[in-house]
Amino acid sequence: MDQTGALDALLHEERVFRPLPQMVIEANLNPHELEQAQEQANRDFLSYWEDAAHELDWFKKWDQVLDDSNAPHYRWFPGARCNIVYNALDRHIETANKNKLALIWEGEPGDQRKYTYYELYREVNRFANALRSLGVAKGDRVVLYMPLLPETTIAMLAVAKIGAVHSMIYGGFSAKVLRERINDAKAKLVVTADGFYRNGRVVNLKQIVDEALLGACAECVETCVVVHRANVDAEMHEPRDLWYEDLVRRERPSSPTEVMDADDPLFLLYSSGTTGKPKGIVHSHAGYMVGINRTLNWVFDLKPTDIFWCTADTGWITGHSYVIYGPLVAGTTTVMYEGHPLYPQADRLWDVVARYGVTILYTSPTLIRMLMRFGTQYPRQKDLSTLRLLGSVGEPINPEAWVWLHKHIGGAKCPIMDTWWQTETGMFMISPLPISPLKPGSVNKALPGVEADVVDREGNPVPAGKGGFLVIKKPWPAMMSGIDNDPERYENTYWKKIPGMYFAGDVARKDEDGYIWIQGRADDVLNIAGHRIGTAEVESALVAHRFVNEAAVIGIPDTIKGEVAKAFVILTDGWEAEYDTSEDLVSALKNHVRRELGPVAVLKSLEFRTTLPKTRSGKIMRRILKAEELGEDVGDTSTLEDLD
Ligand code: ATP
Ligand code: MG
C-alpha cells in the first residue's frame, strides 16, 4: 500500500435499515445491555470472556483467563479441564432439553431423520465406544470424509468425546487431496459413507477413499468405517473396512466423556484455499466453545423455540462452528440438508424453511445470487413467515443481493446478520446484532470482546472513509491454537505482517459511523494509476446492473497505468432484448461502473463467462482468473469447485 496505506473507497451505499420495535423489545440483548457489555469489554476484555466462560460446564475451572506469556501463541483458560461434547450433549440430558430436537436432517431424495438431544447423545456414545474398541485414543487423528449426514454429526462428536482430533475433509475433494490430508494428519482411522446424493446423482465416495488409501502412508489408516447411505456397491477391503451400522449395533449407549485440558486440540481444519494453498488450522476445546457459544447466542439471538438452519457444508469452518458445535452447545435445534440447493428445482431452500418452520436462515452471498437468477416465483409460493433472522457469510454480500434477501425472503422484517470471520478466528468477529441499524453490504462493527480496526502497513489506524488492512488487536477465545506442525508459518502469516496485531488478509474501510466494509482480499487489491481499489466494490457495482448475476474483477499489468482492471461477468437472461450486440452491452456495463463508482474504477476490458472459478465453499478464486490471463502457473487448485 502507499504511504497512507489507504485504499480508495468507491461504493456509496447510503441505505440504512433500522430494526423493527418488536425485534428490539424481544432481543436477548437490548441496547442498554449491549452498551454495558461493550463498556465491560473495553475496560477489561478478560473479565468479559470470563463471564462468557461461566455460561458453560467445566470439570475444573481455569487458573487464569489468558496466558499471553508466549504471544502470539496464546493459551486461553489454562488450567481448566473440559470437553466441548460435554457441553454439546451430556449437560442437556440433565435439563428440559433432553427431549428437544437437536438435529433435523433431510436427504436430497426427501428422506428425513430427527434426533432429540437424548437420542443424539446415545448415538454418539455408541460410536465413541466403537472408536475406543478400534483402538482410537486421546490425541489420535481421525479423518472424516463425509457428506452431510446425521452420522457426520455423530462421528464428529464421538471423536471429540473420546479426546481424539477430527480432520474433516469436504466430501467433494479428490482422492489426491484426501490422501495428502490423511498423510499430513497421520490419521489412524477414516470415517466415510458408501456414497451420497447430489443433484439427482449418486456420488460414489467409498471408491475415492479406496484410491486415496492406496498411496497413503504406511503407518496411517488401519481402519475405514463406512456409513450406509446410497446403496452403492462399495468394495469392502477386509480387515480394514467396517460398516458403521455393524459396529455401533453392538455398542452400549453410554460412554465416558474424556476430560481434556483447555488447549488440547479438538480439530484440524483446512482453510478454503481462496488465496493460496489451504492452511491446516488447529482449534482446541475450551476457548473455541466459549467463543462460539457467546457469539451464536448473541448474533442469532437464540430462543428456546428456534429452528436454526445454516446451509454450509460441514467440511468448512461454518459447518463446524454453526451447523454442529455452536447450535448444540447452545441447545438449539439445527437443520442439515444433504443435497444440492437447486434439486429438484430452485425452491428447495424455501421448501425446507416452510416445512420445518425454520426461524433463522444463515447462508452465503454466492447461494443468494444463484437463487436470485430464478426471480421471486419460487419464494412467493412458500410460506416463509416463520423466519425472523437471516444471516450471510463467506464473501462480501453486494447490496443488491442483500436487499433482495431482505425483501423477498425476509418479508422486509428480518434483519440480516452479515458475519465476518474466518477458519482461523473460529467464531463470528465482526457482525451486527438483531438490534443494530443495518447498512446493506457492511459487516457492521466488531462484537463485544473483539477489537477490530483498519490500519496501514505500520499499524496506524487509517481515517474514516479510507481503506486499509483489517486487523484484530486483541486475542479472542476461539482463535486457532496454530497451524498444524508449523508454528513459524502461523507467526509469519498472521502476526508479523503488521507487528503486534492479527493480520486477517482482507482489506476494508470504516465509515463515519464506524461501520466496517470489506473491500476484498489484500492479495487482490487493484492498483490503477496510483489508486488502490478493492475488488469487492467494483464487483458490487457490476452486480447492481440488472443483467449481471456475478462478477469477478482482477488487475492486469499495464505499461501506462501500472495496472488496469478486467472484469469477468456472468449475465442474467434477457439482455438481448435490450441491446443489439454484446459490444453494446459491454459499453453499457463500463458506463454503469463509471457512473456508480467514478472515473477511477475504469474497466479496461470485460469478458462474459458462464461460470467463475470458485472454491467448494463458494468463494471466487480471482488468483486463478489472473494466472490464466497472464499465462502463469495457477498454483494450488485442490479446492477448486468441480463444474460438471
Ligand atoms: P484461504 O485463507 O485458504 O485463502 P479463505 O480465506 O477463503 O481461504 P475461509 O477461512 O473459509 O478461507 O474464509 C475466510 C474469508 O472469507 C475472510 O478472510 C473473508 O475474506 C471472507 N469472508 C467471510 N465472511 C465474510 C463476510 N461476511 N463479508 C466479507 N467477506 C467475508
Ligand atoms: Mg483466509
TrEMBL record:
GO terms for cellular component: cytosol. NCBIfam families: Ac_CoA_lig_AcsA, PRK00174.1. Residues 36-88 form the Acetyl-coenzyme A synthetase N-terminal domain. Keywords: Acetylation, ATP-binding, Ligase, Nucleotide-binding. Gene3D superfamilies: 3.30.300.30, N-terminal domain of ligase-like. The gene is acsA2. This is Acetate--CoA ligase. Residues 96-482 form the AMP-dependent synthetase/ligase domain. Its EC number is 6.2.1.1. GO terms for biological process: acetyl-CoA biosynthetic process from acetate. Residues 537-619 form the AMP-binding enzyme C-terminal domain. Belongs to the ATP-dependent AMP-binding enzyme family. It is an enzyme of class 6 (ligase). GO terms for molecular function: acetate-CoA ligase activity; AMP binding; ATP binding.
